[in-house]
Amino acid sequence: MTTWSRPAALLAASLVATALAVPAIAAPVDPTTDITVGTPQELAKALANAKPGATITLAPGAYEGEFVITAAGSAAAPITLTGPREAVLSNGGGYGLHLNGAAHWRLNGFSVRRSAKGVVLDRSHHVVLDGLHLSTVDEEAVHFRTSSSDNVIRRSTIRDTGRGKPQFGEGIYFGSAKSNWKKFGENGGKGPDRSDRNQALENTIGPGVTAEHVDVKEGTAGGVIRGNSFDGHGISGQNYADSWVDVKGDGYLVEGNRGTFDGSGALVDGYQTHTVVDGTGCGTVFRANDSDLGGAKGWAINVTNQNKCAKPAVVHSDNKVRNAGRGLTNIEVGAP
Predict the structure, then answer these.
(1) 20 to 30 A Cα–Cα from 10, which one of 24, 157, 257, 304?
(2) Which residues, including other chains, have CB under 8 Å from residue 126's CB and lie 6 or more apart?
(3) Confidence category of residue 308, pLDDT binned at 50, 70, 90
(4) Mean per-residue pLDDT for 40-65?
(5) DSSP secondary structure letters along 200-217
(6) Please, what's the b/e burial string for 147-160 (b: 16 or more CB within 10 A of its CB; e: otherwise)?
(7) DSSP element (H, E) containing 188
């Protein structure tokens, strides 16, 4: 048995306490997992190297260039690109941001401006656009294309589209027109662009959106357009763009939206349905929408194709209308 003198015991206790006080060595930071970028070059590199679970944070500033996302996250570990409104992506000759074959991304907060198109998704799934600010684009602001399905745009603002081509200035665009299926359709262009089950939720769209605020193309199905605010000021009427929403796909729910128009523009109806391909454009449900057409000559909800559909559209009685030349709708109103 060892007997310690008092000084030796105090020294031993001090050494033990010192050892216990040594901080643990921090794990190395993976720069591809959490990174803040401040230049276009840094952003392009971070997007190219992104891994599941990564967060890329944009510092305030201008990001001019070609930004393409091809990496995929996962349901358990999505990839996040986030930044303040003062972080502005632009590409005068192309897409402000292009997701091509991407999946499970979260795009939060930043702006896209001064681009030929805003944000374009091709073959991309389970992407959430949340709180983005899109404006001053030559054509459409957001396009879900080439069988991009199960995506959401929510709580975002869109204005001043179609600055170069008013007839193509849609706010949000689901799918592709039949004339473009050969380029963006399935089965090598032999089938439709099945960009299905996409959702537009609680967005503020307009003024200055020169085509439809939400354009739903033939061949798509199962989407939701809910809780949005549409301001028709500046709608051009070009290429038949004379409504806030035009549904040519199947089985859509259009619910709880608020539309206004101040008379400046070519708005005719608030909402329209059309059949472009036989048997499509059917089964839309309109519920609890509030429409002020500001004296426009048409209907709040104009169902143009009811006799062409095996599953007809339904306009519920909880839809409201003011200042429409023709009234609420041209079909029989259903129960709420």
Answers:
(1) 24
(2) 75, 78, 103, 104, 150, 151
(3) very high
(4) 98
(5) EES-EE-SS--S-SEEE-
(6) bbbbbbbbbbbbbb
(7) helix 186-189
